Amino acid sequence: MSQDYYQLLGVTRDASSDDVKKAYRRLARKLHPDVNPDPAAAERFKSATAAYEVLSDPSKRQVYDMGGDPRNPHAGAGAGFNFTDIMDAFFGQSATRGPRPRQSRGQDALVRLQISLAEAAFGITRDLNVDTAVVCTTCAGRGAAPGTEPVICETCRGRGEVAHTQRSFLGEIRTARPCPACQGFGTILPDPCVECGGDGRVRARRTLQVKIPAGVDTGTRVQLAGQSEVGQGGGPAGDLYVEVVVGPHAKFDRRGDDLLYRVNVPMTAAALGTTFDLATLDAETGAPDVEATVPIDVQPGTQSGEQIVLRARGVPRLRGVGRGDLIVEVVVDTPTKLDDEQEELLRELARLRGEEQQPAGSTEEHKGFFGRLRNGLR
User: What are residue 341's phi and psi, to 5 degrees?
Assistant: First the structure.
């Protein structure tokens, strides 16, 4: 131990474990053989690795600080190191060691549910059939046949992992891998359950009730906690997410929390004014106490594109109080064909309103309204 490990890593003797790890990372990025092919860099990397192996281990560091030799005498002059510890230094996390549990959390799942605009606006409760994994009733999720128990794996002796040693120019590289005999569980099922094959779960169809709140729109997700598939070994179930898809409506277009309804009215009705009853979206819920229709007053002289706003007749707000508006957009229908009597009456109206002359500055090809009716629309 002629070299000072602290000096090799460029840290002080009171450096924290994080400081040691950061210093080793910096050196490894410059000296690793994959980055720097210089043989001298490889030797420095080898020395830095040996220093990190000692200073990153509190017990070895204590022995080193007391003047002892913390290295494994069988590894040969500090040439051996644990590759798993090196990966911990690079990625800043500890590798999972020891047997892994047979139980695990189930996966989350996503299903889509199509509903009508009225159901999205006012909410609904639906039955939902899902095919998913449930706990095996034969083995109660244990995976072993009734009356049997798991046994310790003879290959790894219950550790769930086996060690591999490989020699390289850096020395001996020791790695730990999941045991191939028990897949890392540390135990083996000598008699797996015949119903689930040792998995602890089976496929089944279930019927769930999902409550869709009022005001949802396409893309809204409703979370059903613990209603997805159970985990391996009978572990806790994941969450089921129900994504709403709202189908198109024959009359209404949705604009956020507002509803848009376009109504075509004749030219005469727009000029004179009219009233009609509009069946609301509320009527589609079938509730006996809702107002099925509302009167719409089209004022005399209404122009095409004008809107009539009925406050709080739209969609209930999903996150908040109140409702959006119902917007009635008027589209004025201009007649495309007139018989002789109708044309004569319109000409008379134009004469009375002083609208029968061409606008000032118009050319012969730009004829007045009634000229276009006669020559182009009849």
Answer: -65, -40
Q: How many CA atoms lie within 13 A of 169 on its CB side?
A: 10
Check if the beta carbon of residue 258 is closer than 8 Å to that of residue 311: no
Rg, Å, the chain Cα set: 40
Q: How do residues 3-40 score in pLDDT, each as one tens digit?
A: 788 888 998 988 888 899 999 888 888 888 878 888 88
Residues in Cβ contact with 359 at an 8 Å cutoff, skipping those fewer than 6 apart = 368
- DSSP track, 85-103: HHHHHHHTSPPP-SPPPS-
| Domain-embedded: residue 237 | yes
Q: Do residues 264 and 320 both lie within one domain?
A: yes
Question: Structural domain of residue 51, as residue ranges?
Answer: 5-91
235: in domain: yes
Judge whether 223 and 239 are in contact, CB under 8 Å.
yes
pLDDT interval class at 76 (50, 70, 90): very low
176-213 pLDDT, tens digit per residue, is 889 999 999 999 999 999 999 999 999 999 999 999 99
Phi, psi of 21 (to 5 degrees): -65, -45
pLDDT digits (tens, 9 = 90+) for 39-55: 888 888 888 898 888 89
Q: Within 10 Å of residue 132's Cβ, how many Cβ atoms?
A: 21
> Is pLDDT of 243 > 90?
yes
Q: Going by DSSP bridges, is the β-strand pair 307-310/326-333 parallel, antiparallel, or unpaired? A: antiparallel
